[in-house]
Structures are given as structure tokens and as C-alpha cells.
């Protein structure tokens, strides 16, 4: 999930400098202020879908090294060492059984490791769905922030309740650019087969496809 201030497309002249929670001129005090810029969520969607499409199209799984069997050193035997004299080509008593047990144990360990890595590879390299972005205000309201505010306000002092409502308005206000409810956007990236994440019910979403389809889905409207 990505939460940041930005727009669903390029936003020109958004470079800013912030010092002590206030905006300052970018070149006033170089090195003493934080530089920031608005996020282009359209480009982020394009990159996410493009990476998923490329991973699905490649013939070699990018995580195939994780699924390759690895040799596991044999554990030292707990049995006391015994010097045995055997005829050429003969097997020492008990050695065959011990070797078979060690081989079976090693094979089981390698199979378990390979299965786990294979599942991880399938999850990370599989097709994805990109949800949103949606305004932070709408996202928080769908999560039940208004109801939570009322519960907290009932238990708070008048001063605390007023502070809670002020903070609520600041986080959810979509009526102006000063409100974080519209300035901040929320995007989620999930496996294609997953349902809509909480807070994104009814939100637009794009799914990983061929590189050409990805480019069309991520077309940015200026």
C-alpha cells in the first residue's frame, strides 16, 4: 500500500523544501531542509503493471535460484566410531541403513525448501492488480474513521474531543487543497486473484496484462 501526496498523473512544479514543518524556498538553505515532490501515481501504476507483465512473460522465473535444490551437509553421526575390517566391495554392518536414512532426510529437507521458495516465487512474480489511487479522505471514511471518532469523543474531555474533531477534519477534508483528504492519495497493489482491499470497495483498478495493454491502462491524462 502506498500513501502519499500526489496525483494520478504528472504534477508540474511540485518540488518543495520543508523545514520545521513549514515550506521554505528550495535554494534558501541547501542541506538544512527536506526536499520533496508530489508522487505521480499514474507512473507508479505503470511501473507496477509493467514489472508484473515482464515477470510473467519471461521464460525464466526471476526467483528460480531460490527453487534450485541445494546440497545439505550430512549431520555428524552420533554413533561412536568403530574400525571395521570388510572384504573389498562389502558394506559395513549398518552403514547402508544409515546412508539411506541420511539421504531420505536430506531429500525431504530439500523438497520442503524448494516448495516454500516456489510458493514465494509464484506470489512475487505473479500477475497483480493495482487499486486506486483514491483520496485519503474517502479511504479513511470507508474504513470507519467517522464511527471511531464518535466512540473516542464520548470517552474524551471537551478539549480532547475538540482536538480529535480538528484532526479528523484535517485528515479527511476533500474540499480544498489544504485538506489532507484530497491532497493525499492511497494506492494498493495486490495479487490479481485477491478481492478488493478494505477501503477500496468500488474503486477503479487495473490488472497486469501484456506490455501493450499495460501501456494503454496506464495512459496518463494531462
Automatic annotation (TrEMBL):
UniProt KW Mitochondrion keyword: yes
Keyword Methyltransferase among UniProt keywords: yes
EC annotation from Swiss-Prot or TrEMBL: 2.1.1.320
Record-annotated membrane-spanning stretches: none
GO term, biological process aspect, one: methylation
Main subcellular localisation: mitochondrion
Stretch list, region Disordered: 60-98
Assigned keywords, A-Z: Methyltransferase, Mitochondrion, Transferase
Low complexity bias spans: 68-98
Catalysed reaction, written as an equation: L-arginyl-[protein] + 2 S-adenosyl-L-methionine = N(omega),N(omega)'-dimethyl-L-arginyl-[protein] + 2 S-adenosyl-L-homocysteine + 2 H(+)
GO molecular function: protein-arginine omega-N symmetric methyltransferase activity
InterPro entries per the UniProt record, alphabetical: NDUFAF7, NDUFAF7_sf, SAM-dependent_MTases_sf
Domain of life: Eukaryota
Entry's localization field: Mitochondrion
Entry GO CC: mitochondrion
Family listed: Belongs to the NDUFAF7 family.
Cited function: Arginine methyltransferase involved in the assembly or stability of mitochondrial NADH:ubiquinone oxidoreductase complex (complex I).
Protein name: Protein arginine methyltransferase NDUFAF7
Organism: Chlamydomonas leiostraca
Species classification: Eukaryota, Viridiplantae, Chlorophyta, core chlorophytes, Chlorophyceae
Amino acid at each position: 500500500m502506498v500513501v502519499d501526496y500526489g496525483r494520478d498523473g504528472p504534477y508540474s512544479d511540485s518540488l518543495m523544501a520543508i523545514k520545521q514543518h513549514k515550506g521554505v524556498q528550495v535554494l534558501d538553505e541547501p542541506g538544512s531542509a527536506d526536499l520533496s515532490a508530489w508522487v505521480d501515481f499514474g507512473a507508479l501504476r505503470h511501473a507496477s503493471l509493467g514489472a508484473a507483465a515482464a515477470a510473467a512473460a519471461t521464460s525464466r522465473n526471476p526467483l528460480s535460484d531460490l527453487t534450485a535444490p541445494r546440497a545439505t551437509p550430512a549431520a555428524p553421526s552420533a554413533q561412536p566410531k568403530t574400525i571395521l575390517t570388510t572384504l573389498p566391495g562389502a558394506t559395513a554392518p549398518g552403514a547402508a541403513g544409515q546412508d539411506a536414512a541420511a539421504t531420505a532426510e536430506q531429500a525431504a529437507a530439500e523438497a520442503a525448501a524448494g516448495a516454500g521458495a516456489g510458493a514465494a516465487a509464484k506470489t512475487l512474480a505473479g500477475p497483480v492488480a493495482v487499486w486506486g489511487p483514491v483520496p485519503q479522505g474517502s479511504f479513511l471514511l470507508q474504513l470507519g474513521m467517522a464511527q471511531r471518532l464518535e466512540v473516542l469523543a464520548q470517552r474524551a474531555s471537551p478539549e480532547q474531543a475538540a482536538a480529535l474533531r480538528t484532526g479528523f477534519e484535517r485528515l479527511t477534508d476533500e474540499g480544498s487543497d489544504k485538506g489532507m483528504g484530497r491532497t493525499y492519495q492511497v494506492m494498493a497493489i495486490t495479487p490479481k486473484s485477491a478481492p478488493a482491499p478494505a477501503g477500496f470497495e468500488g474503486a477503479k483498478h487495473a490488472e497486469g496484462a501484456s506490455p501493450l495493454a499495460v501501456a494503454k491502462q496506464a495512459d496518463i491524462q494531462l
